[in-house]
Amino acid sequence: MTGNSVEPKRNQRATAGPSSMNSIYRRRRLAAGGIGVVFAVGFAVLLGWVVGGSSGSSGTSGSSPAPISSLSATTTSSTVSSTPSSSTTTTTDPGLLPQTSEIPPTDVASISRRMAPLWAAMKTDSLPVGMTVFFPKSAYQQVKAGILSNPVGDYQNRLVALYGMDLNTYNAALGIPPASALLAGFAVEPSLVHWVAPGACTNAIGYWHLPNIRISYSSRGSVSSFGVFSLISWRGVWYVVHLGPVPRTSGTGVLDLPANGQGTPGPGGGC
Questions:
Q1: What's the per-residue H, E or C state across the chain?
Q2: Residue-by-residue pLDDT tens, the chain, 271 positions
Q3: Which conformational region is residue 268 in: left (phi greater than 0), alpha (psi within -120 to 50 degrees), or beta?
């Protein structure tokens, strides 16, 4: 091939007149202008995206949600810091408050819940555990105010001392080892509950009295029981005041009415 089909077009472009050249220049300027417009619009869009994205990430507009991990971490730390620790919880000593005439519950279920720490103290021979259900010292000061010259001394040296001895004796009665004994249940006779009026039994303040509830337990396949000599009330709650019987002449622990089998609550009376 000689290229004859190409040469005439090349010659034709080379020999075009002024009007043709002006038309070509106008088309080129229009094309260049269009490209400039497109570039300007594209640059504006890109600039707007960058600016908008930056302001959203700063958090000032509030329209962009925080990452999930950030939200969960904030919630967790807030929950932990706002929840009070149980170790800082304080409880008012009920013995510092005035007595009421409210009678505590006398059904077996309520007595069982209330005296559960007493059973635990018997199994472990633990006076500190037993003191959680023992009559409060501050309440005893109110009951004996104007009656005894030293209520605190009587409380510590007589009531608490005998209670500790009794817990040791009850613990020994559970068998070997005492921790293997199983609680069979509590027995209560509600009709034995009575009000001890102020002035009776050398007390300045009245209270409800529940004598001789029973605790039965199983040890080595046999069931035995013993009594709790005296529960008295303070502000509608039962407390142990004498575990073993009083008065007593010996300075040792004594079981209250031990028996084979479940036994029977009572007798009544006392204060």
A1: CCCCCCHHHHHHHHCCCHHHHHHHHHHHHHHHHHHHHHHHHHHHHHHHHHHHHHHHHHCCCCCCCCCHHHHHHHHHHHHHHHCCCHHHCCCCCHHHCCCCCCCCCCCHHHHHHHCHHHHHHHHHCCHHHHHHHECCHHHHHHHCCCCCCCHHHHHHHHHHHHHHHHHHHHHHHCCCCHHHCEEEEEECCHHHCEEECCCHHHCCCCEEEEEEEEEEEEECCEEEEEEEEEEEEECCEEEEEECCCCCCCCCCCCCEEEEECCCCCCCCCCC
A2: 434 433 333 333 333 444 444 443 444 443 444 444 333 334 333 334 333 443 333 333 333 333 323 332 222 223 233 333 333 445 889 999 999 999 999 999 999 999 999 999 999 999 999 999 999 999 999 999 999 999 999 999 999 999 999 999 999 999 999 999 999 999 999 999 999 999 999 999 999 999 999 999 999 899 999 999 999 999 999 999 999 999 988 789 999 999 999 999 999 999 9
A3: beta
Cβ neighbours of residue 249 under 8 Å, at least 6 residues apart? none
Q: Which of these, 154, 157, 164, 91, lies nearest to 131 by C-alpha position?
A: 164
Q: Judge contact between 163 and 80, C-beta under 8 A.
A: no
Token match 């004594």: residue? 254
